[in-house]
From TrEMBL:
Pfam families: PALP, THR4_C, Thr_synth_N. The modification N6-(pyridoxal phosphate)lysine is found at residue 110. One of its GO terms (biological process) is threonine biosynthetic process. This is Threonine synthase. Signal peptide: none annotated. Its EC number is 4.2.3.1. Belongs to the threonine synthase family. Pathway: Amino-acid biosynthesis; L-threonine biosynthesis; L-threonine from L-aspartate: step 5/5. Residues 99-325 form the Tryptophan synthase beta chain-like PALP domain.
Amino acid sequence: MNYISTRGTITPIGFKDAVMMGLATDGGLLLPETIPALDRSTLEAWRTLSYQELAFNVMSLFATDMPAGDLKRLIDTSYATFTHAEITPVVKKDGVHILELFHGPTLAFKDVALQFLGNLFEYLLKERGERMNIVGATSGDTGSAAIYGVRGKENINIFILHPHGKTSPVQALQMTTVLDPNVHNIAARGTFDDCQNIVKSLFNDLPFKERYALGAVNSINWARVLAQVVYYFYAYFRVAEPFGSEVVFSVPTGNFGDIFAGYVAKRMGLPVQKLLLATNENNILARFVTEGDYSLGDVVPTVSPSMDIQLASNFERYLFYLFDEDPARVCQAFAALPTKGRIDFSPAEMARVRDEFISRSVNETETIETISSFHAETGYILDPHTAVGVKAARELVTDGTPAICLATAHPAKFAEAVVRAVGFEPPRPASLEGIEQLPSRCQLLDADRDSIKAFIEEKAR
Ligand SMILES: N[C@@H](CCOP(=O)(O)O)C(=O)O
């Protein structure tokens, strides 16, 4: 399997090189040349596999240059850190299927991919005798998951930018209390979009990228998306009845990476009726699906801070397919975006979008009210991001199709919002006990590319 860029100007490369490249060197995002289509008998055969076995079957279709034994070992090592035997179990509460993605070390769905990617980087670097400086941006969850994926690894340094004061307190502490010498946290005075822009611009500075061997942990890295495809299959096999019938996945969406993984699963042949794109008040993607309005606005802070994003990086991967795999159109759209502030779509394109997606933007009051009412009805505490997806599913999926809501984080990461909703703090998993008392380390900097570049140059090994 070879990988190409959404911008169309790189020579196709294999999986391992794609993982190491992160952002494509032409500024685009990497995608497999083709997405394998599965027949019903393959799906049937996968139905009873363990999570790890399923992960191997899905990933080996895309990671064709990885020896099978090595891939299996990396998968097993990566998921041994999870506290639930099923890795991503599905629980049913009041007719809603909740896909719990928060049983990894940092209590968010990001661990599913970043435990794997950390081990994969270590493996590839060892094979090549190389080192890497990871540079990533986070609105809250990716940062700690990436740090936990690579902390203490000898040939890797990690620099994570987060928007100062804009994550939840626990999200910030999960990053800044990791004191391994290879971990560097930067609190940037700006928004997540500022952080993501700086990261992308450093990757697009090819001499800098090469000199410091930059590696990507954000979902610009194809391996992130790939590892997340697996749980769509896993959840489908637990929920669909009869086998072969359709389901809806409700996905709280910020950077479009998680829902894009669902889109890949659907393209592979998973019977998904619709992907429900659920946003908070940062609703550019919901406006796109419901009104065809993809115009940039300002980021507003919400109780679901991981989704406080305007410019979702993986949207580009979806546009590549929407534009019939024509890189010239993708280039045009992104070249005009900074000046025009919008991307326009034809009625035919919007019809295709609505064939695949439904969407709902959920406001702050609705989010808190959903945590509160869901708890009153079921005794289950939703985190604010998951509540956005549950609210959207309850409102939009009313025809009896099973709705699988992705529970993207543990509620204890967002205690303030939960207290507002139910009047008490959610029980804390052991990993968060006493986190406020731990020593921490973080560099506060302006959201300015040159200052951040200089900091990386000073600390890079
Ligand atoms: N919501 C994310 C933002 C970064 O997204 P990614 O999927 O590209 O890593 C976060 O929590 O950091």
